[in-house]
Amino acid sequence: RFLMMAGNWSQHAFIDAADPASPYKNSITCINTRYNRRCFNDGYHIGHHVKASRHWSEMPRDFVANVDRYRDEGAVVFDGVDYFQIWLLLMFKRYDALARRVVDLGGPPRTRADVAALLRARTRPIG
After folding, report:
1. Dihedrals φ, ψ of 76, to 5°?
2. Are strands 28-31 and 76-79 parallel, antiparallel or unpaired?
3. Where are the domains of the chain?
4. Is the overall model pTM greater than 0.85, yes or no?
5. Cα–Cα distance measured from residue 101 to residue 104, given in angstroms and rounded to the nearest whole number
6. Residue 96 CA: distances (Å) to CA of 21, 23, 92, 119
7. Rounded CA separation 5/107 (Å)
8. For residue range 62-109, what is the model confidence (pLDDT) as tens digits?
């Protein structure tokens, strides 16, 4: 039960306070993980929020087809790390390690420090 709660918390840990209702800014996507292969592509969590009825087998293809939208919306996409690993890194405030796993979807160039600052900002309390 604890792992499920930590995973769900991680799925929604990086919320953009300026647009908290956006599925691209209130959840994350994790690609290239063993977790996806074992858990029906649950790592494609933004895609789940965009269209909850999408079949799990279509999630990776949908992500690739819409990667420009993910970029334009400011989505956070991690590569090679799963929700529990993200939770653990957040507990230790390792934004630098998380930033190394963020996928560059294009757009204006950002340093790793810029990405770490973005992640830190998105974990601040809203209100």
Report:
1. -100, 120
2. parallel
3. 2-122
4. yes
5. 9
6. 26, 24, 11, 9
7. 33
8. 999 999 999 999 999 999 999 999 999 999 999 999 999 999 999 999
Site of tokens 């420090």: 113
| DSSP structure string for the chain | -HHHHHHHHHHTS---TT-TT-TTTSSEEEES-HHHHHTTTTT-HHHHHH-TTS-GGGHHHHHHHTHHHHHHHT-EEEES--HHHHHHHHHTT-HHHHHHTB---SSS---HHHHHHHHHHHTSPP-
AA letter at 25: K
In degrees rounded to 5, what are phi and psi of residue 77? Answer: -125, 125
